[in-house]
């Protein structure tokens, strides 16, 4: 079992668990592992979100990289997918995003990206951990003129804007946008500046909220994990669509004109349908995770599409896409990967794709989402001891209760139990026809898990 890395990098309470000392070591080990195959002085990019601890961790990270001998470009506050894009664009050896995504401000995290702009493999994370825990970490020290240097390069945001301009400007200019307005919630996070610039550049009418980060209000009752604010904005202002990004901007959820949610599964259905019509959906296949709604499976079957399902985590979705040549994949939570354009989830890219489809088809968002029936789904987190979250299937009583539920919902529903990769939680998900019934069943199982694994 890995000590530091979870399913989405390292994520802990900033300054007490994710200490500057640990960050410094992670940087030195990471620079060594990621750049040892190159024959040049490593170049590493660093981007971050708006958390109060961001500059603290950025400083420790920079010090670790420079101490190893790597050179650093500091991108400032920038969405995760922008950092991934710039890593490839600038031919950097690696990059790091300092963010805890959708978590509250006291958390922060470290996500490494390879020179291809992709999240690094599990095996590389394991190698980094081995270096951190070994005596070798002390050897990774540059001397004299080999010490690295850093430079502030926040102006590179313009390269990311050009990416969207090249991709969407001509198509959107040819469509009638006059009577279309979108609401945007940037979650006081990494998209708070760049999103507005993108929508202004593309001439899309918009109303934008939660663009005043203060270091502690990121994801606070806003963004993709708290949709009430964007729903209110859409309904009260009679908007055509609402978009909510998460703290680091690698995912988005949408709201139709009636205030109803368009989650990642509905998103995948809408986009796959469009891409198939255009003949650009490779192998007529989309990639999702085991958390995807039963309705997505049925949608694919009814529309002659293939669906491949992976473990939870957009990194595993990407692995499957790369392995078999697919170009569309994503998660229910709103990570959507358009591999033809960027090898990571990109909230702004996803939202622009949806807007383009809406305008091109001249349909309301509620009409587009009607192509898929979503089954009621309850997801409840059982709070457990961090060192026991992987033991839920070892307890006889818990195991028997899970088997009982799986048998009950085998015909028209589903039961999925899994430990969180980033928090001391066991996630209990049940799908079925009756929302109240499945909620009671899920709550009962959560109580049992918490009792046994506290």
Overview of the molecule:
Helix content is about 40%, strand content about 20%. The chain contains 14 helices and 18 strands. Helix 9 (about 295-300) links the parallel strand 12 (about 285-290) and strand 13. The radius of gyration is 22 Å and the shape is globular. The protein folds into 3 domains: about 10-150, Alpha-D-Glucose-1,6-Bisphosphate, Chain A, domain 3 (3-Layer(aba) Sandwich); about 160-370, 3-Layer(aba) Sandwich (Alpha-D-Glucose-1,6-Bisphosphate, Chain A, domain 3); about 375-450, Alpha-D-phosphohexomutase, C-terminal domain (TATA-Binding Protein), CATH 3.30.310.50. The two termini are about 20 Å apart. The strands form 5 sheets. The chain has a 6-stranded mixed sheet, with helices on both faces. A 5-stranded mixed sheet has the order 8-7-9-10-11, sandwiched between helices. A 3-stranded antiparallel sheet has the order 16-18-17, covered by helices on one side.
């Amino acid at each position: 079992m890995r000590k530091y890395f979870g399913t989405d990098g390292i994520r802990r309470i900033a300054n007490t668990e994710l200490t500057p000392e640990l960050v410094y070591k992670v940087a030195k080990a990471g620079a060594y592992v990621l750049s040892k195959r190159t024959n040049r002085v490593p170049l590493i990019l660093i981007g971050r979100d708006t958390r109060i601890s961001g500059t603290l961790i950025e400083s420790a990270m920079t010090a670790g990289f420079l101490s190893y001998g790597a050179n650093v470009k500091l991108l400032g506050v920038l969405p995760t997918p922008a950092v991934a894009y710039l890593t490839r664009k600038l031919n950097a050896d690696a990059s790091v995003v300092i963010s805890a995504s959708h978590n509250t401000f006291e958390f922060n995290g470290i996500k490494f990206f390879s020179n291809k702009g992709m999240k690094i493999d599990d095996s590389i994370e394991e190698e980094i951990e081995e270096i951190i825990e070994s005596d070798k970490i002390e050897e990774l020290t540059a001397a004299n003129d080999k010490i690295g240097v850093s430079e502030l390069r926040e102006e590179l945001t313009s390269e990311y804007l050009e990416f969207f301009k090249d991709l969407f400007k001509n198509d959107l200019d040819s469509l009638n946008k006059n009577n279309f307005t979108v609401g945007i919630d940037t979650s006081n996070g990494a998209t708070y500046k760049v999103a507005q610039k993108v929508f202004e550049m593309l001439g899309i009418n918009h109303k934008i909220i939660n663009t005043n980060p203060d270091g502690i209000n990121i994801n606070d009752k806003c963004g993709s994990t708290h949709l009430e604010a964007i729903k209110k904005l859409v309904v009260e202002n009679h908007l055509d669509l609402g978009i909510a990004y998460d703290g680091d901007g690698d995912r988005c959820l949408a709201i139709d004109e009636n205030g109803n949610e368009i989650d990642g599964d509905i998103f995948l259905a809408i986009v796959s349908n469009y891409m198939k019509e255009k003949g650009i959906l490779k192998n007529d296949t989309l990639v999702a995770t085991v958390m995807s709604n039963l309705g997505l499976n049925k949608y694919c079957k009814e529309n002659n599409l293939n669906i491949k399902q992976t473990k939870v985590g957009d990194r595993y979705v990407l692995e499957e896409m790369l392995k078999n040549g697919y170009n569309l994949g994503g998660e229910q939570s709103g990570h959507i990967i358009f591999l033809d354009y960027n090898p990571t989830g990109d909230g702004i890219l996803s939202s622009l794709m949806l807007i383009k489809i809406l305008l091109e088809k001249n349909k309301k968002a509620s009409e587009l989402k009607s192509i898929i029936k979503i089954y009621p789904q309850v997801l409840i987190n059982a709070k457990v001891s961090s060192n026991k979250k992987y033991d839920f299937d070892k307890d006889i009583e818990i195991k028997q209760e899970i088997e009982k539920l799986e048998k009950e919902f085998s015909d028209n529903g589903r039961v999925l139990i899994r430990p969180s990769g980033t928090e001391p939680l066991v996630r209990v998900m049940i799908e079925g026809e009756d929302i109240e019934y499945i909620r009671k069943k899920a709550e009962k199982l959560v109580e049992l898990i918490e009792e046994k694994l506290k």
